[in-house]
Amino acid sequence: MKLNREQAARFMLRKQGLLGEYRFSGKTGIVDYVRQAGCIQFDPVDVCGKNAELVLQARVAGFQKQQLSELLYEDRQLLDYFDKNLAIIHRDDWPYFEPIRELHRSELRSAAEVEAAIPHIRAAIRERGPLCSQDLELNHKVDWYWSSTSLSRAALETMYFRGDLIVHHKRNTVKYYALSEDYLPAKLLQAGDPHASLLEHHKWRMLRRIAALGLLWNKASDAWLFIQGLKSAERNRAFAELVCEGKVLELAVDGLPDKLYCLAEDTDLLDEIASGSSGSSQGQDRMELLAPLDGFLWDRKLIRAFFGFEYTWEIYTPAAKRQYGHYTLPILWGERFIGRLEAVRDRKNRLLMINAVWLEPGVKSSGRFLTALKRCVKRFAVFNGMADYRLPESFIYK
Q1: Looking at the 3D structure of the chain, how many domains does it have?
Q2: 0.70 cut: is pTM over it?
Q3: Looking at residue 340, which CATH number applies to its domain?
Q4: Do 20 and 283 touch, CB atoms closer than 8 A?
């Protein structure tokens, strides 16, 4: 199938639930989106909502932060674990991540000290319930991944990486761990690895990443990060088998030399987009603020190719070298990225402060634009628990 760039972009937006009427709603919608995307990347920074919360507020009608917390730590339909780096996954996917757990069983820093501490930690959790590293009197330093850390933290994280522990709950950014066997069904814990080979595991992980974006190409991309052992040769073989098995479709997009791939299950949506009857005119005034680590943005080169939009998360960029702000969010209006803004919470006055709005070339501050922006920012203020918002007196034009 051949698409032009506008059709390809529209397909991705519809797949993401970012164009037209909201497809996801409430806690059921959160679970449905996680199942579709495979995972939501987690980051603890909270300037105007944590990354996972920002991802969901752009897609799930009426999303509230507490809903995600309930699904993670009360209903336990979702789990904190590794997929695209630290992530939120569906509980039913637990068996498929056995290769990650096995890797952490075989590779361990400060092995002797950590192994010796594990029986003590298991007994302490049995006796006292969920614990954080500060609850354990194992404070001497050991070698860890990026620097030395306390033995309690190293041992707890090792048990978590191996699957012996889950994150029971969090207080701010502090993790409290519990025994997996007390909270995960035995059938999941005893299922074993569903895949007979690393190739099959790679294919499953690649299907998740394609589903997360909608379209992906067979080239180096941040979208493939944290799939262990997936280099170009392995990716080529996996793509060839997925095409032969009819699980992915190959597409050509006008003006792009590389083939794109989507899930075969998205054929109906592709046909709808290609026929021009996609209903994209509905919700064209819908404006959303996207998360810095939104799955839609995992491949920045793809976003540039389809939307002409350049985005860099500048949180780790020295202030003097930043082009925009410390924590800017892309603004999506209908089918176009029209700029970015920097929002911070003034908790004392319950105000969402929009420090700056940078608009892309050709975007004018029309009445229609201002109406959509104010509606978007007001909803974002409510999402952040703020009573009102303040826009800057003027916008910055590129």
Answers
A1: 2
A2: yes
A3: 3.40.630
A4: yes
